[in-house]
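Forum: Protein Structure Q&A
Topic: Joint prediction for protein chains with partners

I've read a bunch of threads here and the consensus seems to be that you should model interacting components together rather than docking separate models afterwards. I'd like to see that in practice. Below is the full input, 665 residues plus whatever partners are listed. Could one of the regulars post the assembled result?
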Amino acid sequence: MLRVEGLHSGYGRIEALHGIDLDVAAGEIVALIGANGAGKTTLLGTLCGSPRATKGRVLLDGADITRLPTHRIARMGLAHCPEGRHIFPRMSVLENLQMGAAFGDPRHFAGDLERVLALFPRLGERLHQRGGTLSGGEQQMLAIGRALMSRPRLLLLDEPSLGLAPLVVRQIFELVARINRDEKMTVFLVEQNAFHALKLAHRAHVMVNGRITLSGSGADLLSNREIRAHYLEGGAA
Amino acid sequence: MATAPADPAPPLKDAVIDAALAGLVAAALALPMLGFHLEDGTTSLTLSPHLPRVGLAALVVAGGRLGLTLARRGLAARRAGRPGRLARLGGRLSGTRLWVGWAMLLFAAVLPLLPFADRNLIDKATMVLIYVMLGWGLNVVVGLAGLLDLGFVAFYAVGAYSYALLAHYFGLSFWACLPLAGLLAAAFGLTLGFPVLRLRGDYLAIVTLGFGEIVRVVLVNWGDLTGGPNGLGGIPRPTLFGLRFAAYAPPGHHTFAQFFGLRFSPEHRIVFLYFLILILASVTNLVTLRLRRLPIGRAWEALREDEIACRSLGLNPTTVKLSAFATGAMCAGFAGSFFATRQGFISPESFTFMESAVILAIVVLGGMGSQIGVVLAALLLVGLPEWFRELQQYRMLAFGAALVLIMLWRPSGLLSGRAPTIRLGERT
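Posted by a regular:
Agreed with the consensus. Here's the joint model:
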């Protein structure tokens, strides 16, 4: 479904990605793990056209989206949940969800809302509350729910566990698994929380300094010695 | 509501020391200013010391400072318990905005019929309404889309000059020019919008400030077309379906008074202009309220909240920003052409930065994005200075003091907080 070929990208003259190749097949959860500054968020940004790729291609179902403006890429079904959630704090939860459906067929709105609220009952309880007054976990749910409202083909999640309590992190990851299983949603997940991400993912890649150094199934990587040493020390609770 | 923990009130000793310090500073300042009196002797000027006045000034300042500190402590203690009266009033008003709005409209509609409504009052009310309309227009740009525009008066000027020039050179009537003026102003809004698309916040403010000045400077210097600093006079007055508001009509035309068999009175025109701006402003309000509920309005608000999120949801920030600029500018264009027809004379003098500042102050004081807040703030900022002309040179002082007080008590505007644009009924 998503195919990345020899992707280079960076900020100004500093190159952050030095040739990334990966692909995500329909129905999969693919995780990308790596340390701070490895280029994970840059990769997700580049998929969405910001920053622009300097070399290489991004294909979505065979269509080249490398040079499209960000909002066009979003409308092609690539829903990006940016790092730090980026919900609309002064708008109500319902309005936030509605913004997610801004470009969908309005006839789908009621049904999609129903679906998202079934996934995240907490949002239903807080429908008229301002987004900014939600707890961190609820905001993350709102960000994912908002992305789902656009009926994406591929969901890009950037650090959904950022700044959340361990219990809430587990909840969020369970929800991601459910979205993948029940909704057949393809998910590309970028995480620092390697343990949870690898447990969840069908396949995973490890990124170091702008290059993918290791790839394999989630279970394989989870038992890999090197990975355990570098990313799972003490985290495997 | 997230309330910062009120800093513990300073003990009385601190307050006294603080006041004494203020008094000392006042004494030092007052010594050269009040301490000596220049006396005009027969042969020469002599300086005579006048120390009691210095002491008095120092005492007044120290006492005032002490009083202020104590009053602050009292206020802080009270506010910790319950919201201030003004805050509660604001809350009540925002809770029942709908009927407050209708009541205001009703009052505005019957205002000219009320016994105390003389020509002067209606004239001032017209002026206030122009600013209400401008405020609503700017509210779209600043309040909803969050784009700080310091050059809004440029669009007002474009509207006014479009009408004046079209009437002057092509003899078009007010009614033909009104939509044209709006469109031209919107076109200018787009023109400004394009180069500033990438800017936000302070940077945007500076560029729009420059744009406002450019328009004014062009108006001043393009003497051949705009009459330069002398302005344009003889701008035709509006008619009511061809009926003129004048003592006599040229052959083939009727005056309003003739047609309705009334005795001519210059007040007819004043009242007509009042109703005209009332209708224009109401339409502006209706349209902007409606736009808020449409996807484009929500997109404006979303853009204000988070541009990155907007983009990742498939919103094109370019179109969203440009549409906000154009909509706001169009309102200003309508208001501008009304202004031109009301005054009958316009010059670049009327479109200085001060106007932009007042309009922006109306939006900010009213509470960004609040429609009724704009009305209250316009009454306060435009109405009060007009009514308090008797204060003469202290007028602007009172004006400034009012602004400071409002920002102290209601830092987010008179009526802050926004109502969601959609709600669902109770879900079953």
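The first helix of chain B runs from residue 12 to 34.
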